[in-house]
Amino acid sequence: MHSFIELSKIFQEKFNVRHFPEEPSSLYNSSQYILNLGGKRIRPVMCLMGNELFNEINSDVYNVATAIELFHNFTLVHDDIMDKAPLRRGVQTVHTKFGEPTALLSGDVMLVIAYEYLNKIKTHYLPAVISIFNKMAIEVCEGQQLDMDFEQKEKVSFGEYLAMITLKTSVSLAASLQVGALLGGAGLGNQRHLFEFGKNLGIAFQVQDDYLDAFGDPAKFGKQTGGDILSNKKNVFIDTCTGSGYRTSGQRTEKFIAQ
Q1: Start-end of H helices in 151-234
Q2: In angstroms, how far is CA 70 from the centroid of its own chain?
């Protein structure tokens, strides 16, 4: 069994190639741009981990993991446009650097190439893998829409927030584990257990991300501080009724009012 760090290095070696044609360069260079910025690659590594629990890692798993990472970056490009985010991983977002029309197209083509990678796996796995992948993709879009809808609401309950981040973030981590396990030969019971584990892990990940959005160091976090507040987004660290929240300094936490 490999550690997360070891699997991350293995995946990076496979993934760090050009995934797009050379021309038209104005389109494909913008798609490759966001991939070259790096990232944690958590979802594809979880796919490899799910597989290795049941079998040796094979080419099918690498293709699915690559498709998952391309899909994730497609969502980031479009999310940044919707959120008007100027920074991603500490540098200009795709739409800031290349313009919104090109960014939309570069995200779209990443999604198409993701399906091309899925199409490379063994045919007897394909229906189940496509089903899991499509369900994940639909739910991520649903979560993003809820996130935007919440910007127009004065009050959002914790339950509504939890449902939104489950769709927007955690289902992709959960599906990554599940599909890796599927390709390793896991039965439905084990797939469900791993999906639930991945879902809870994804919720914890998003809560931490929300905290860093409000209070993180942009030099380390790579994003604009307070982006959620500026966009009127709702998260667990912002009181949705008053615009107040909580800031932490050392060991002391104090309430503040957003200006």
Answers
A1: 158-165, 171-183, 188-215, 218-221, 227-230
A2: 10
> Locate tokens 């996130």: which residue?
147
- Helix, strand, coil shares of the chain as percentages rounded to 5? 65, 5, 25
pLDDT in tens, 193-210: 999 999 999 999 988 888
Crossing angle of helices 171-183/188-215, nearest 10°? 150
- Give the separation between CA 205 and CA 191, rounded to whole angstroms: 21
Residue 232, pLDDT above cutoff 50: yes
Name the residue type at position 144. Q
Give the pLDDT mean for 19-28.
96
Measured in whole angstroms, how far is the alpha carbon of residue 235 from the centre of its chain? 17
Task: Report the predicted TM-score, pTM, of the whole model to 2 decimal places.
Answer: 0.84
Helices (H), 57-99: 59-83, 94-98
Cα–Cα distance measured from residue 102 to residue 40, given in angstroms and rounded to the nearest whole number:
25
Nearest to residue 186, comparing CAs of 129, 122, 130? 129
pLDDT (tens digit, 9 = 90+) per residue, 39-48? 889 999 999 9
CA angle 88, 135, 237 (to 5 degrees): 45
- What's the rounded Cα separation, in Å, for the pair 138 and 160? 18
Which of 108-117, 147-156, 172-181, 229-238 has the least mean pLDDT? 229-238
Residue 217 CA, distance from chain mean position: 20
Looking at residue 244, its pLDDT comes to: 45
Q: 4-257: which CATH topology?
A: Farnesyl Diphosphate Synthase (1.10.600)
Q: How big is the chain, counted in residues?
A: 259
Q: How far is it, in rounded angstroms, from Cα 177 to Cα 204?
A: 16
